[in-house]
Amino acid sequence: MTTSTVEVTTTNNNGVVTPLDELNIEIKKKDAILQCFYDIASMDNETRLQSITTLVQTLEEIQSIFKPEDHKDISRIVPKIIEKSEIFNNNLSPELNYTLKRLVIGLASTRDSARIGFSMALSEILHSFKEVIELPWFFDFLAFHMDLSGKNLSERESHFGRLFGMMSIIRSSRLEGLPIIQNQPSKSINYDFNRPPSENMIECIVEQLLYISKKRSIYSELSFEILSSLFEQLSDSNFDKLWPFIKPIIPQSQDEYTPDLLSLLLLISKKFKKFNLIKQTVGWKHPSILNLSNLSLIKNIFSESCKSHPRIHKVWRITFEILLADHEENATLIEFWKLIVEENLFKTTSMNKKYLGLQLFEMLLPLVHPDIINDIFSENVIVNLSESLKPTSPLHEVGSLAFQSIPRTAEISSQHRLALILFFSNNSHHYNQNPQQQQQQQQKQKFEQSISVDVINELVKDLDEDSIKIYLNSLYKLFIDVASSSSSSSNDDNNNEDEDDMVIDEMNNEEKSEKYIESTRHWILSQIGHISKDLTKRPTESLIKLEPMLLELLQFLYFHSYYLTCESKPVAAVATPVTKGKKKVTPAAAVVATPVKTFTEELFTSKPKSEISQSIRDQCFIRFCSVLEELSYLTLESTKQQQQQQQQQASTTSYEGTMSNGEFWASKMASFQYDLLKKGSTDSDRPQLSTFLPMGIKPIDRIMKIVQSIQLKQKSAEKRLNQLVGFELLFVHVSLHYLTDPQEISEIIEDLTSAFEELTNPQPPQKSSTTKKRSAPEQDKPQPFMVLLDVLISLLDKPIHILRTIIKQIFSIFADNISFQVLEHILTMIKAPTDELFNGLDGNGDDDEDNEDDDDDEFKPISPEELKQSKENSDSEEEEEDDDDEEEEEEEEEDSDDDNSVNPELVARLKQTMGKHLLLDEDDEDEDLLEPTEEEAKMMDNYLKEVFKSKKEKKSNYQDIKTQTINLKSRLIDLLESYVKKFITNPNEYIFKMIPLMIEATSFDEPSISNRFISLFKNKFSQIRTTTDKSVNVQELNQLLSSLFDTILSSKHTGSSKDKEQQNNNSSAYILSGHAIYMIVRVLLSIKPPVVAVAAAAATPSKKSTKSTKSTTTNVAVVESTSSEYGSLDIKLFSTKLDSIIECLLDRNNIVPSRFFAEFAQRFPTVIWASIKKVTTIIESPQNDYNSKKILDVLSSIVKRKDSYGTNGKNLLNNASDILTTLCNSLNGKEKQLKPNSIFDHLNLINQIIFSCLQIIKSSSSSSSSSSSSSSNSDTNLSNKLGSESCKLLESTLCRLYKLNNKQNIKDTSKKILLSLGLENNEIFESEKQKKLEKQQKKETQQKERQSNKEKSKQEIIERIEQSKQDRKNKSTDSKIDNKNKSKPKKKVEDDMEVVDDIFQDVDEKSKKNKKDSDKKSIDNNKKDTTKKSNDKKSNDNNDNNKKDSIKKSTDKKSTDKKSTDKKPTKEDSQPMKKKQKK
Known about the structure:
Blueprint: E1 3-5, E2 26-28, H1 30-40, H2 45-64, H3 78-81, H4 94-106, H5 114-128, H6 135-145, H7 155-171, H8 201-215, H9 220-231, H10 236-246, H11 259-271, H12 277-280, H13 295-304, H14 314-324, H15 333-345, H16 351-364, H17 373-376, H18 379-388, H19 396-403, H20 405-410, H21 414-426, H22 438-460, H23 465-481, H24 499-536, H25 540-545, H26 547-562, E3 563-564, E4 578-580, E5 583-585, H27 599-605, H28 614-632, H29 637-640, H30 642-648, H31 665-682, E6 688-689, H32 698-716, H33 722-736, H34 742-760, H35 768-780, H36 784-796, H37 801-813, H38 820-831, H39 834-837, H40 845-852, H41 864-880, H42 886-901, H43 904-914, H44 934-982, H45 989-1001, H46 1007-1019, H47 1034-1049, H48 1057-1065, H49 1067-1086, H50 1092-1099, H51 1106-1126, H52 1131-1143, H53 1152-1163, H54 1165-1168, H55 1172-1180, H56 1185-1200, H57 1210-1229, H58 1236-1264, H59 1267-1282, H60 1284-1300, H61 1304-1317, H62 1323-1378, H63 1385-1419, H64 1422-1456, H65 1467-1478
Antiparallel strand pairs: 1-2, 3-6, 4-5
């Protein structure tokens, strides 16, 4: 327990308690209590609750050990704690007294959640300390501190503080069971509002709340809220006693009611069932407030609740709780919503009311039952909600929050989700013919188009199986029952309209209704497609459960694509027999339940209210194909039969597009179609086709018999045959498309059946006598696979996407049985030009136009003679023009081509009729022409129109045919891609045989086809690594490789424009050749060569000597190693082709070989060493800097790849000497031509080769010998590997480069190379040693000279000093003799001493200068030193002379100035003189 002395003071003028930290009395557990006060006001709910529990527990511990006698110890300072009055409680501990005071005063605080937190804390304390704290005392305590007169606090703070304090009293649950003694309210004259009597607690609180609620409107809502919470704790008897207190505040008219009062009355009527509204109040029509008759009275009261914006008033929550209980006397929730919200709040211009309406929508939507969700989305709600979703709307914030309630409601249950989906689906295409509602309907339509589809798509994702089935059934029903809505309203003004106007209006209405029906059905089909896409993404287990529903979906779509419904017959009721004894007797009048119709019966008999148009039927079939295509990618067979397959251990292959029982979806639908067609043709009650079938159902009957036979064979066989599966899938899909084009599909069926019979049941070989007669027609007969291919291609040409996917699947199934002739036929079609694929490009479209205009006089038929004459004239004109220049011939040929493109009959007729007015020849002049008449001018205009029209049509037809051919070719490439994809892991010989044909196909068509082939090679052929197929011939692969190299080499051109254009056209061929080379080289390297030939060569005995035998054995070993290294690649052929590629590297005009070589070197660096000698020969040839740098880059890229060195680095070690010699020769021969940068590149490459060779030698020697010997012998091994000649050549070139070049980088690299080679005893290093020795000698001589100069200078200084001393002595004796006769000899002596001092100072300064000069001399050269020495001597002599002159001048001055020397000499002047005399 932590204790501290604190001093408790009274409240300040502001009513704030002094903190405990500033008090001077002993408070127990101060830290815990203080922290609780801060946490109670927190915004976090959990923190607030935890602090309240901690505070209550702490106070209970302190109060349990507290005694009232403890107050005597602090009686001295009790007045400082709190004023002595009736509110002081001696039974409470000081801690509890302080806590109550701080909590009560904190009720007036506006900080964070102080009021809520402190009121909750007070309610818990009042509830916990029932025995100690009395409620009347606490109310007086509250009234004392929350003075309503504004003594210590403001009016707002004191009123809200007292309200929250009374709330804490009510929520402490201590008012339950208290009696009500006062029967009548206090009179206003005698009522003390500030200090009311607190003996009757309930009456006191009620009167206080009613008083505060009347004072200001801001206190009304909280007052009635507290009063409502009080009534919830009262019994019926106590409520009857309290009603007289409340009755005075109820007005006489409902217009004067407030939302607060209405919420109180609603709560009273809900709580107390005996309360009679009509007896106790005035103006109501029914005892229930929320009765339908009373809603008109309280409509404005609910509207006034918007004043609590942006909060929702409590009256709405209470009202919704009562209405959701669904009492009989109350109005329904829908009636209340329509009258109060829809027609009251939203039909105003007030934004606050609309804001409130959207808030109510957000609050109510998750609460309602799924059955009435449709009614909550009323028209005004949708309009305002869609408007609020716009970013510029002032209601955007609340609108987005309201819209977010839709997914929250969907998460409650699957019923809510389904109800929302059904609402948006049923109202997505609402139609209204009333013109007054047209503007509003446009807004609603905008909401539905922008939001409904997205909402449904999001909600459908999480639907369960049952809900999906219900939703699909609703869509089926809507698809059939959709009809136009007729407007029932009619005005009197319309009676005066004319009949014509009425007819026009009816026609317009019919058009609108048809558009509405079409749009609704289109929307339903799009929803079905979205649901199917979502279902296919679900896991397999759920899809197995949804199989019947998906099958019904397919049946619905296919049925409405081609069939009409039939009339449903009444089902005869079958009475159940009743057993009497041993016999069964059927009663006469038995009640029999009608049997439930199945889905197919409902589908066949449900007649649509409006006829289904042909466009809708086409859309149904398109949607059917899309759903069937999505299911064709799924495999449900393996999941259901996985355990059975594991038990049987049978490796059965699973196919895509199968159901859980192994049957194809398409087969199931084909049987459904066959049943409809077969029974519809025999039974009139069955559904009939909407179109006529000229061929009947014989082709379908033929197909289905074949399919049934195939299914029987598959069931009897242990393992499915791919060929039979492919035919079944093909027959089934062809039958499903039979109704689209019966005539064409019937022809396809005949070809398919014949091909099937020939492939599955081949005929036995005929006798020899008959073979000669039938050999010729049998040769002309196409092969069955070719027939099958033609059928597949014809189906590919159809604009149906499912056929493309299915045909690719079928082609992959037939891949094992496809011959190369089929693949070759596909590739010939791809590389064929457009004119060859589609005949009749010129078309005969003009014939129809000519036939139509035969009746006119302007277009008379031309006789054959006139036509021949016009052709002969045109031929003669062309023969005459052949003698002109080439440019003129080209222009005339273009003109003749244009003329020939027009109908020749039209041209001949134009010349015949209008020849007088045309310039037919070049010699004709404008003057010879005649002006046409009006009829002739019109005739000419018609001719010209026909010419331009025919040209335009032909151009458009050609473009259509061109796009059609490109699409067909891309689909054929898809077939090839599926074939290659199947054989990626183990390619057969056909994969390699297709490569030249594919490369050839790229040069005949559009770039899109070439790009498809390039992507095929990059994505599929690049994945081929090896092959184990025995059909692949290694020799053929090597020959193919050489031919591919030839295509790359064909990129050479002479420089002419035609060659350049041809090279640009064949760029895709070069790319494909490169990728094919990479793939083939990879495959050949992976194939092991036959070892038998090598072994035989090794085993053959040699007849030569032993030396020859040794050589032969070594040769055999080398062949075996090379063959094993390069696999089955013919390295000789490859190296020759690669050498020719290397020759083209330096051609700037041709980029293809260089790019190919760079890419090939990165992919196969090991194989490049076979042609490394060719690269070195190019270096020796004279080239410029650009070419040499290019070759050096190629070499460096090869050398850098350590993985290309081979075993033990033999590729590099065997070729290093040749590379180094060529590099040295290029440096020796081209040194003057090469720039320093290129020389540096040469040296870097040499350094790189030597460094890598040393690493290889060290690694091999370390494995064989010790580390000590390996380091010493590495240089010798390298020299042995490279050879003495190459080493000498390298040394000489490096030495020469070092001497002749001034670039430091070249010198450093050359030295580095020599050091790595171990050539330290070289001229370069010896010359450097000599230079170093010379530098050292120079330094030593300079130092000696400096020292000698220093000594000389010192000696000279000493001599000068001694000489000066001697001179002074001599001068001093002479001066003494001269000055004997003078009267003051002391002055003379002093003067002499001063002169001597000056001399010494001059000498010292000169010595310092000499030292500086000597230091400078040591830095300079010897020549400069000698000159400086001579100058120094001259300067010394001059200085001596100057000294002598200065001495003479000083003596003269002293002799002349005798008066100035009368002063005595100082101590400072005499001391140095004495010292010097001593010296």
